[in-house]
Amino acid sequence: MKALVYTGPNQLVFRDEPSPEPQSGELLVRVEAVGICGSDMHAYHGFDARRPPPLILGHEAAGRIVGGQRNAERVTINPLVVDPACPYAVEGRWHLSPTRQIISMPPRPGAFAELVRIPERNVVPIPDSLPIEHAALAEPIAVAWHAVRIGLEKLHRPLASARVVVLGGGAIGLACALVARRFGAGEIMVAETNPLRRRTLDAEPGIGVYTPGDTAEPAESSIDLVLDAVGADATRAAACRIVRPGGVIVHIGLLPGTEGLDIRKITLQEITLSGSYCYTPTDFTDTVGALVAGRLGALAWTEERALSEGDDAFRALDSGATAAAKIVLRT
Ligand SMILES: [Zn+2]
Hints:
Elements: E1 2-8, E2 11-16, E3 26-35, H1 38-44, E4 55-56, E5 60-66, E6 74-77, E7 80-81, H2 87-90, E8 101-102, E9 115-119, E10 123-125, H3 132-135, H4 138-154, E11 163-167, H5 171-182, E12 187-191, H6 195-202, E13 208-210, E14 223-228, H7 233-242, E15 243-251, H8 263-268, E16 272-275, H9 281-292, E17 302-306, H10 310-319, E18 326-330
Helix pairs in contact: 4-5, 4-9
This protein binds zinc ion.
């Protein structure tokens, strides 16, 4: 099969690779669309010791089952592979399993390839009505779905009367805003410094945008739920500044650094601070359901490119030469 192989820092080669051989309980999926994630970019730069070259990256994939009784069935892939007997899986929090695997991290090759192997329990069927490039968005949107759901569970007022701020308007931040809109949030604003991304956000009905530091920035202690999709010192500080007494901060971003939290305010004003990582299988299937039902907007913020030109796509994303929040590679 052909695959886009990460061969060293800032190097991707489209070449022939051995086809994966499904093991017991696994299926082979012919990948038709696969998104480029921030974590793929991180690995491409050589910053992820867990993803050493040579390696096939990519974990946001959708396509068709090859062979067996379900041959040609259209599916999207939940890339988190967890032993169902793990105590965390038993309590429904599969993503916290210490033995979890994800495709694109050894020992599991990723989906920037024509074929990928995956346990059968990890595929979610999709109807013909869902475009395959939208099906490939299920994974990143599930990350946002999980984060918004954690926020909702900890809010002390109905979401319809809540003010929600998302810090960062990349793919995950944008998806958080779309999911908060889907759940009926009263007011949604996204903080974003990049003008190209602000334009994408501006096109979404019901979602406001502001530049951090400008006059549209929310007043201190005025926001019920803050979703930090950046995870930097500055965004943690901003989240603590704008959250209201008794409000909720959900921390999703993974930039380096640990500063910015106002522990005194968190204590004195009973702010709930929660991390959010990946998604449960239920979050994933609920996200697919919302995609199929068209409840997450027009999804016009993606750009399609050929997998064979994946190298160029990484360079375009890296240099900020594309306005798209997400590039989806097509085989
Ligand atoms: Zn991802």
